[in-house]
Structures are given as C-alpha cells and as structure tokens.
C-alpha cells in the first residue's frame, strides 16, 4: 500500500489515513468481464430500467446549444415518454453555465437537478481564478451540481498537491452545490492512475467522481468503472464518507446500463443504487431504455422513430 504524496492531505475526518492499493490489472479486468455476464431475470428488467432512468443525467454540451434545445431536453427529462405511463423523471440535466438559467426555469418545481460544467471544461487548464469564478457564476445562476475536470497536466506530472488544492478550492467555490470531479480516465494511462486520481479527488472533497467528459475517444468502460467503484468502497471503509459514482461517455444501450447497475450493486451495495450516489451520463441511452421498456410491456419492439431524438 502507498499514500498519495500530498503533505497534510492524507489525514481525513476521524483521523483515518487513506491508502492507495496497487491495482491487479488482470484480476480487475477478469472481474469486470465476469460481472458483465450476469443476467437479469425478465421480471427484474423493468425495475432495472426504471432505476436506470431515475439515475440518468441528460446532457447537451455543444457549441450550437440554444435555449430552445435546452427547454426541449428539460421537457424530456420530466416526461421521457408522454405516451407511456409510469416512466420516471431523470435525475438531472447538465448544460453549459450560460444556459443554467434556462434549465432552472424549465425545471422549477420538478425536483430534477440542474448541473453545469464549469472550470473551463473540458480541458480545465484555464487560470485558476477564472475557473473558480465560472463555478461561482454557475451556482449563482441556480446550478445545484457542478462538474469540473481534474487538472491532468498537474496530476500526470506528479504535482498532486496542486491538483488536490484546485479541487479543494473548487469545492469551496461550489458552496451549497455538489461537486463532481471528472477524471477523464481515458487519458490517465493505467488503472493505478485511475485509482490514485479517484482517491485524490475524494480526499479533496468531491461529492462524485466521474469517468469522462465525453469529448475524447475513450470513455466509460466496465474495468474503469469497477476500479473507481472499488476506490469509493475503500474510501468509505477508511473514512466513513460515501462518495457518488458517475459513469459517462459511450453508454448507449439498455444492456450496458443494467450491466453497470450490477457492477455497482456487487461492489458498493444496494445503498449506492440511488440517484444521490449513482449517475449515468446519457446523451443517447434514454431512447434505447424506453424502447426496451415498451418491448417488455407489449412484447413487440418499437421503431427508433417512435421516440424523440435529443
């Protein structure tokens, strides 16, 4: 076992010391593959798909986003399919800071959270004062969740204290809002680095750790999700602090969603299968889940054109 070299940062509430265990790459990938083969009984699939929707974050992060597009996404977040009864609302919508007021207005009274990327997303390499000001602005506009990216430049160079301090400052800038820290795992190079980055972000105050921005080629994968889930489990065991997990990027079909639900259940337990502790970033997942629900209810597949395109 080893400690992240952050002077003064290893001591957490309760006096515990957080250790970083080297990752058994072969064992991790084998376990992730085995969990991916678990089947869900037909009688349980509807419940799993319902839970997947309740844990979804609908996201639009494009340069051509408009208030009209955000309002349409918010309407779908509230009622994913008006033609089907009993479909729950999603957990949150995620937009750029400029469009937070539009989302807040559209979702008023629904209980759906408004998340904003901030801190010069997706690179996260702007001047720190600019990054913190953007976080404060998003929260002032009504965001109750903020997604920032880990400073991979500092982290990969071994400047752990710098990366830690930036997350801690971002957490302070969030005030009442929850902080999600995106690790951008596809750029970290190894599972050891993913685990180290997970521990660092949690030590610094992250309320959630998140796989990806969705802006690079490698996004969420089962082994990476398992690596992060095991870090969350060990952090909770060592500190008593429960941190959430968000999987984002490349999750496009219902089968993948329930495989990740199984992974979380088996690694972290049923208490993590709630929107307060687990999220799926879904830009294209929701429609496939709705199609599967319609199939299970009616016995026949619907056409993709029967559902609105986000």
Commentary on this structure:
- By secondary structure, the chain is of the alpha/beta class.
- Helices cover 45% and strands 12% of the residues.
- It has helices spanning 25-36, 42-54, 67-78, 100-107, 128-140, 152-156, 160-174, 191-203, 222-239, 254-268, 285-298; strands at residues 56-59, 92-95, 113-117, 145-149, 178-182, 208-210, 244-248, 278-282.
- Strand 1 (56-59), helix 3 (67-78) and strand 2 form a beta-alpha-beta unit.
- Helix 3 runs parallel beside helix 4 (100-107).
- The model is unreliable at 7-16 (pLDDT under 50).
What do we call the CATH topology? TIM Barrel
SSE topology string:
HHEHEHEHEHHEHEHEHEH
Report mean pLDDT, rounded to a whole number: 90
DSSP E strands, number = 8
User: What Rg, in angstroms, do the CA atoms define?
Assistant: 19 Å
Which homologous superfamily in CATH is the superfamily? Aldolase class I
Biggest sheet character: 8 strands, parallel, barrel
Residues in β-strands, percent: 5-15%
Q: Helix content range of the residues, please?
A: 40-55%
Per DSSP, the total helix count is 11
Tell me the domain tally.
1
Helix-and-strand structural type:
alpha/beta
Shape: globular
CATH architecture: Alpha-Beta Barrel
Distance between the termini: 45 Å
Report low-confidence residues grouped into runs of 5 or more: 7-16
Order of adjacent strands in the largest pleated sheet: 1-2-3-4-5-6-7-8
Family: Belongs to the DeoC/FbaB aldolase family. DeoC type 2 subfamily.
GO molecular function, one term: deoxyribose-phosphate aldolase activity
Pathway: Carbohydrate degradation; 2-deoxy-D-ribose 1-phosphate degradation; D-glyceraldehyde 3-phosphate and acetaldehyde from 2-deoxy-alpha-D-ribose 1-phosphate: step 2/2
Catalytic activity: 2-deoxy-D-ribose 5-phosphate = D-glyceraldehyde 3-phosphate + acetaldehyde
